[in-house]
Amino acid sequence: xxxxxxxxxxxxxxxxxxxxxxxxxxxxxxxxxxxxxxxxxxxxxxxxxxxxxxxxxxxxxxxxxxxxxxxxxxxxxxxxxxxxxxxxxxxxxxxxxxxxxxxxxxxxxxxxxxxxxxxxxxxxxxxxxxxxxxxxxxxxxxxxxxxxxxxxxxxxxxxxxxxxxxxxxxxxxxxxxxxxxxxxxxxxxxxxxxxxxxxx
Length: 200
Hints:
The chain has 3 helices and 9 strands, in the order αββαβββββββα. With 200 residues, the protein is an alpha+beta fold. A hairpin with a 4-residue loop joins strand 8 (160-172) and strand 9 (177-187).
């Protein structure tokens, strides 16, 4: 005769009750919600850092280019205004393909073009939303800037030795927005050296 052994339940192991399962599921869902929230927060932080980096990069590129173009220019044209610079000579040919180029902010950001053209031929920085220019004038012909003016007084374009430029930048998306403002002064080398040579 063959005996079969019947498995007996181990005492004290009755499984989990419905309340225990519900508590475990609720705890698991709370941990999952916290992890999702942390992931979304880190993703937004990364997006903000990327936008900040873009604004900083555009600001650096725009200011370096403007300083270089103004510094190396032979002069600033009389037609320049507080929002548009007309640069003559220097790096004008690579800038816009002409001897005199303008630089201003349009709908597509900071751009430049040859004198006589309405639309920019070169984009400098798309996130630049405004530019303000003041012109440093040498009132007493000693080779130093005496005053800054929002526009060039009639017939005094040759007295412009520097520009004070303020750029306003904006970068935004559905979740993040950044704005920055930078002011810098660019000195025109050629006119300053000419004035200093005359003073000697």
